Amino acid sequence: MENTLKELSNLFDEAKAGAEFEFVMTLINYRGIGKEDVTNLYEWFDAIEFYKRLYFEFSGKEKTRMGALLYSTFFENSDFYNIIGSLCKEKLGYKGSSYLYYKTKKMDRLLGTGEKIDLILELLNDCDKQGIIQFFTDNHFKEIRNTFFHSAYSLIEDTYILQDSDPIIIGTAGIFHFEVGDFFYPKVENVIGFFDEFKRLYNAAFMSYQEDKEVLALFPGPTKATIFGSAEGLKGLEIKNTASFFGQMAHSGIYYDPTYKMWMAKNIRFDFPQKEAVEIKEELDRYDKKNNINRSDAEFQNLIDRIVERRRDEELFKATSLLLKFGGARDKQMEKEQNLFKKKSLYPGILHYYNQALEIGAKFIEVSKLKARIKELEE
Hints:
Blueprint (H helix, E strand, L loop, with lengths): L1 H17 L1 H9 L12 H17 L2 H17 L1 H14 L21 H14 L3 H10 L2 H8 L3 E4 L2 E4 L5 E3 L2 E3 L1 E3 H28 L5 E6 L3 E7 L7 E10 L2 E10 L4 E5 L5 H17 L9 H13 L2 H24 L3 H22 L5 H12 L1
Antiparallel strand pairs: 1-2, 2-5, 3-4, 6-7, 7-8, 8-9, 9-10
């Protein structure tokens, strides 16, 4: 865990160095005027501290129940994934977002914990955070969360038994029960270690702004912004002369009001469609610079779904090009692969990308050539 926590610390530092204005926006996490009610991050901090105390206080089944509550609550929090994903984007020089994981028409429901993790894996890989990826791989089992929150489990002495559930896959074996001392408690304590460091880093970053600081910002073009600091830490930011009222220039910003103890914006219009257009443009640019998708295509598929919903030709054209590029990369990989089983495992992904390109971008490509290759692959 030591190297994983070091990676997490480095990610905060690298995001700040990569795009400090965006880094501060991620810390503020502004979605609209309000206090702590606009985010569940602070309740998540407080709740897990409470669960930690009880976990270490109790023993036996009571300890297991508190461990399962802590474990499940940790992996549920959406703002946690928004922040990790945004830090990755900022390290890479892009904008973060408070809405990385909103629903599409295709997936009109809340995301599960595994889906949220899948959406940040490629970003973590692009940032070379293999230890953080391994943390999720080694410690997250959605079946534990599902059975606990749905009361679909039983405890017999030191054994946790999954009821009405898919098995937990360990290596190639599926298991429906596990010993809490050997299997579960170490994972709970890994989660506690990761949570403690994440909370420490987030609060330390917030408190690091003890005085005002001028930084470069994109709003939307290059400009200078002032970050407001104080003895209590970050108090907001301001971009000068960005709004015009009756011929007079005014400043824009996000400010903390100490009287009402809430965050509020001034002369900033939070237009979701416009914000989405900027984010999609940056995501297309990031994927355009990649030769292949290496860890998970969940984020990329979410991007494709959003582009299909918007039906904008310039975005559809770029999305089609990317689908052909990533399908082609796997096609070449398949031709070189000597292992028959690995070779066979590449077929579905190639066909999926090619068929998607045909479905959303037929008017941009040479259809006959693509259809011929699809037919070859299907035979």
